[in-house]
């Protein structure tokens, strides 16, 4: 059990490290970002999140639901997406009320983006933890390591997608970096929790993965695509989508 726990800690820790490195890009980019570059960043983040929601979340959720054969394979995906979208829409609607009460919200209009990325990191961390917990052979360990590597690589642009917009809103580099970094800390926390409770958490994974996908898709359409409107944003979206798709397919 200790070996499994240590392996899961390394896998989820790597994913968290990549989020931290992505958030650290805020220290190397000037405060004033060219509008075209800003659109390209938003488009890239939208492409990454769209591809990740399909290949990293929805397809694994459907496959796991099909293997468990407890319900139609499409049901967790449909219900999870709807709940994720409704949750983020409710959060988005609540933000203006919070702004009126508190004067402003520290995360500004990027709060849904930060929330969605943080939420989708929860089932990803659990997936990595469970992959190591359920690995009973060398092939299983290789697959778990590949999953951790793929999730870690995709976390780099996600960390940047949080810290850079916050910097644009006027936050200090340190605060923007901390917000981006902390969005990824849920991965090792929930990953290790999943190892401890592997037998009871595994049946919920299709629903959790689909919930995260719905939250991500809502943010892509509601927040990122409007900000990425333009040729540079479109190019960024295509590049981000293709990179994430290739990583997910190649690393399995």
Notable features of this structure?
single chain, 252 residues, mainly alpha
What does it look like?
The chain is built from 10 helices and no strands. It is an all-alpha fold and 252 residues long. Residues 102-107 have low confidence and may be disordered.
Overall pLDDT confidence: 81
Radius of gyration (CA) equals: 18 Å
**Elements, N to C (H/E):** HHHHHHHHHH
Q: Which geometry do the CA atoms define?
A: globular
- Could you give the count of β-strands? 0
Distance between the termini: 25 Å
* Number of structurally distinct domains: 1
- Low-pLDDT regions: 102-107
- Protein structure class: mainly alpha
* Helix count from the secondary structure assignment: 10
Described by strand count, sense and barrel closure, the largest sheet is: none
Percent in strands = under 5%
The percentage helix is over 70%
């Amino acid at each position: 059990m200790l070996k499994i726990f240590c392996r899961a800690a390394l896998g989820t820790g790597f994913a968290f490290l990549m989020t931290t490195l992505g958030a650290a890009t805020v220290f190397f980019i000037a405060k004033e970002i060219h509008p075209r570059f800003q659109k390209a960043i938003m488009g890239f983040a939208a492409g990454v999140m769209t591809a990740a929601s399909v290949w990293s979340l929805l397809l694994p959720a459907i496959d796991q639901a099909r293997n468990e054969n407890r319900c139609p394979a499409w049901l967790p995906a449909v219900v999870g997406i709807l709940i994720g979208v409704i949750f983020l829409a409710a959060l988005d609607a609540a933000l203006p009320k919070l702004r009126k009460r508190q004067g402003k919200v520290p995360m500004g209009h990027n709060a849904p983006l930060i929330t969605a990325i943080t939420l989708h990191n929860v089932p990803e961390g659990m997936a990595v933890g469970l992959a190591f917990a359920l690995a009973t052979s060398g092939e299983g360990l290789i697959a778990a390591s590949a999953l951790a590597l793929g999730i870690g690589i995709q976390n780099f642009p996600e960390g940047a997608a949080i810290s850079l917009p916050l910097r644009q809103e006027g936050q200090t580099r340190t605060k923007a970096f901390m917000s981006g970094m902390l969005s990824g800390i849920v991965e090792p926390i929930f990953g290790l929790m999943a190892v401890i409770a592997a037998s009871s958490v595994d049946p919920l994974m299709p629903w959790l993965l689909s919930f995260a996908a719905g939250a991500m898709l809502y943010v892509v359409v509601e927040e990122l695509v409007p900000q990425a409107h333009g040729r540079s944003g479109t190019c960024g979206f295509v590049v981000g989508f293709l990179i994430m798709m290739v990583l997910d397919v190649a690393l399995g």
